[in-house]
Amino acid sequence: MPLDGPALKAALGPEAGAGLETTHTLLCRREAGAFQRAAKSGDDVLVACTQESRLFQQLNEQTERALPLSERPIRFVNIRETGGWSKDGRQASPKIAALLALAQLPDAAPVPTVSYRSQGRALIIGDAERAARAAEMLADKLDLSLLIQPGQGALPQTRTLPVFAGEQVQISGWLGAFEVSWTQRNPIDLDLCTRCNACVDACPEGAIDFSYQIDLSKCSSHRDCVKVCAAAGAIDFDRPPQIRSESFDLVLDLSSAPLIALHQPPQGYFHAADDAQLMAAVLQLREAVGEFEKPKFFNYKQKLCAHSRNEQIGCSACIDVCSAQAIRSDASRKGKAGGATLAGIIVEPHLCVGCGACTTVCPSGALSYATPGPDAQGQRIRTLLSTYARAGGKDAALLIHSQSGGAKLIGDLGRAARTQAAVHGVPARVLPLDAWHTASIGMELWLSAIAYGASQVWVLMTSEEAPDYRAAVREQMATAQAILSGLGFKGQHLTLIEAGNVAALDLALQARPAECLGQAAAYRVLADKRATLELCLEHLMGQAQAVPEEIALPEASPFGGLIVNADACSMCLSCVSACPAGALADNPDKLQLRLIEKNCVQCGLCASTCPEGAITLRPRLLLADGGRQRKQLQVLNEVEPFCCVRCAKPFATPKAIELMLAKLGAHPMFQGAARERLQMCSDCRVIAMHSNPHEVRINDL
Known about the structure:
It is built from 22 helices and 31 strands. It starts with a helix and ends in a 10-residue tail after the last helix. The chain is flat and about 105 Å long.
């Protein structure tokens, strides 16, 4: 693999390029002394090899006067499969410089953690024989119970574990806090059964086998089994179905179809339909006792949430996309302590697996990814692209991939390119960027990457990503691409790459570059999603040759305006109080409904709140007057106030009076003078009632 040390040092600068005076070809073997000298220096150490990371760590431990790894961890970066092992590896110096610069960035700030506590109480669900076999492999480590389904396999003769039998099994919870319920219908209670086999011998129909459950389709109700079981009392045909519930720390599900059918099941739940899956689950279960932690992957700001107001539902994008069912609605909090009219969602951190798709689809930024946060991720993207450009790289394509399946596939591609003439490998212009989950990087970061100089942003998804994530990313990309295309930038800038093998990935990475911006942006990505998008849009408009009046966007867009049906709108202004983003406003001096389109997140709460159904969402990006118009108040509807027919004081809207007359005008109580009072202000209405000699008063009754 060709390495140009001086060029890399020049691109990185004297500090980041320290140590590049000499490049090594066998640092882990013949040239190990150079690594040991660096380890003894006390400076930070970055090794551009991930294959021998374990060996380098051992060398550090064996090197006298080298700092221990607990005080000075060694950083590793892969420049071989991702750069050098490619058919254009000789042109990969700008990319290698960018990868080295990225690897030297400080770690993201620590985030709060979520704790689990498991005491090893485990439930095995399945047929009797497989459950008993799994129990043999786990009994020395876990406190086991079995839940078997009737008539499936034989239980062991000896009673060593608690055994239940049931149907309609329901599981909820997570590692250390599972609640399992089931319905017990069979006449034989396995808790009481001594497995003496007298019932098996007594049953003439063979309706009882060694699972010690009765096949009721064969039973003719002669009840001989009840008689022989009189001492134990385990058989009772008159016992009503019982719903039982128990708490467990772990669940091993051996059913053919998983009882928790989620793409991301909760921690502590394992499904094993075959023996290979069973062995993998057993190995993990044996180590699942104790206290465990994981990062809290998200931040949530309720005041920005556009999910609900006054029990009306608006945006539900995060709930719809979560494959772990970790998010639920909290729309019914109205009137509860601390709830008032403000309600949103509840995210259960113990169920969250950190996919980040909820943060990508959230239009308001109420949900943001925390590991790392968008500002830290933006710094990584900016460092990668700026270093690449400074080293002379052109037409950069940012390839976002996961740290597990995506990284493995890219590694396989690099190895194939090294050994197979027909495989090209990762092109020199493609810059890999790893993430815990590819769905956690959304529109504000994609567009910022384009603003920082990238020609394209590609998101690589393999079989590990849920279908819901793919659909969500595809929708968000359609909106971002519509903005870029609407501003006149040519080419396909954003692409979701769905590749299951090396050949598919190799072909996808050969795509032609799209048009780049003439000047890279200087802003920094902020923690606030909407603020970052505004900075990005300002830069994109500044680089566009011509800015249109507006750009039509897909329905999933977080940008847009509203269309108000003036004939239907009664100007009740309930939509103003429902708007979570401060986009809608009234006018204290006039009967006006106004909108600041920049603030609108297209959540739909105004439309669902409107009693007349007069509001329609209008997804678009308004760029008139250089984008200033979308930041100003627009009048959506305006009416002259209805004036009191007695004193001429304005007190209501014409539509409101019209609706009131239509609903009450035919009622006997509102005829004649009473009908006229409906068109009076509150003061005049009282005067008219008390000054009318024909009005019936309480003392007349």
